[in-house]
Amino acid sequence: MPSTTTADSLLQGDITFRGRGLAVMNGRRFSLKVCPLCSQRNEQRTADKGYCNWCAYVPALSDAQPVSEN
Fold it and tell me: Could you state, in order of their start, the residue ranges of all structural domains in the chain?
């Protein structure tokens, strides 16, 4: 079943973007830890801005999914 997740209904904590990258959701903002496009890790101050320091990619919250724990 397709997800209709929005920023308002996202669970707090670790998220990915269609299974790639890693971010931490805090309210309506997120810290982008690992870029889903180029797979580079961001420093904390850049991660808190929500974009990739390496390729300038800004992930869409519509692609966000909670990290599944296996």
Answer: 12-53
